[in-house]
Specification:
Elements (H helix, E strand, L loop, with lengths): L1 H17 L3 H9 L3 H10 L4 H23 L6 E9 L4 E9 L2 H4 L2 H19 L7 E5 L1 H6 L8 H12 L3 E10 L5 E7 L9 E4 L1 E9 L11 H15 L25 E2 L2 E5 H8 L1 E10 L6
Antiparallel strand pairs: 1-2, 1-6, 2-4, 3-4, 5-7, 7-10, 8-9
């Protein structure tokens, strides 16, 4: 008897799932409200595909209107996103701002940061060079980048402003290019996991270039990946102002110094960053650090 009811239960569930109304399907597919989905189906004679297109068009239009209305609101919160293409040795780091930390912690905003970072990486790879360098990207440049469907990043952000209801700004970005002889590492803190594990997000981010000065094996338990990540972690945590001292610059104690090589190593304060790098025969060539909401020149 139990088996009979179990089979009937499964059959009923399957039938119910296969007979979902167009309204239920559209709501699940788009995430828009009941009333908006209902109106979309009415306008488009219950055609789900056309109703979905209509919803996106409406949201885009309303998003631009809302973006204009909210553009003067402060956007001090948000996230940093970093995406890397290891085969090409190319990376992109962006800062997307919003009004509140509540939205910054929302999965929808986090997924938006991931999407935009990936689109930026695609555009950055089109500008790849044979030398290691950082390419600064302004807000206007970033907003003009294209997604695969032909929409701009400005379009995508406006759509999400309309849906989320907060002002957002794609504040800045940087592309990073490294030739095969240069190692590139990155780090974000605190790590926020979105739908795409290949994109790192957090309130802080760092990208850095490294080069070995010797072909000798590195000390035990050290690899370029491990060292690079820990130096980027140090850059995020200690916020050095430069890699090394200028010739006329006074040397401060490791506890006071803002020079990367002179600072106590964050992971092991008993040694300086220079001592760690020297032991591994590695030089830091350059780095970029982003802090969400920080003042910039």
């Amino acid at each position: 008897m139990r088996n009979y009811f179990f089979v009937r239960s499964l059959g009923t569930t399957a039938k119910a799932g296969s007979n979902k109304s167009p309204l239920a399907i559209l709501r699940k597919k788009t995430g828009y409200s009941f009333s908006n989905c209902k109106k979309a189906l009415e306008v488009n004679e219950n055609n789900i595909e056309k109703a979905e297109q209509w919803l996106h068009a409406q949201a885009q239009e309303q998003g631009w209107a809302k973006a204009t209305k909210l553009q003067d609101r402060s956007t001090a919160q948000g996230l940093i996103g970093i995406a890397v293409n290891k085969e090409r040795n190319v990376a992109a780091m962006i800062e997307l701002n919003c009004e509140t930390d509540f939205v910054a912690r929302n999965a929808r905003f986090q997924d938006l940061v991931t999407t935009i970072t990936n689109h930026c990486l695609t555009e950055v790879m089109k500008r790849q060079t044979d030398r290691h360098m950082f390419l600064s990207l302004t807000e206007e440049e970033l907003k003009g980048f294209l997604a695969p469907d032909g929409s701009t990043l400005a379009d995508i952000i406006a759509l999400n402003i309309g849906q989320i209801g907060e002002n957002m700004k794609l504040r800045r970005g940087v592309g990073a290019f490294a030739n095969p002889s240069v190692h590139m590492s990155c780090y974000t803190h605190p790590t926020v996991t979105g739908f795409c594990p290949s994109v790192m997000t957090g309130k802080f981010g760092a990208l850095a270039f490294f080069k070995r000065t010797s072909e000798e094996a590195m000390p035990e338990n050290w690899t370029m990946d491990t060292l690079g990540r820990q130096i980027c972690q140090h850059i995020v945590g200690m916020n050095p102002s430069s890699i090394e001292r200028k010739p006329d610059e006074k040397q401060l104690s490791p506890e006071e110094s803002t020079v990367l090589l002179d600072q106590e190593f964050l992971v092991d304060p008993d040694v300086t960053v220079k001592e760690v790098l020297d032991a591994c025969s590695v030089n830091v060539l350059d780095y970029v650090r982003f802090q969400c909401g920080e003042k910039t020149d």
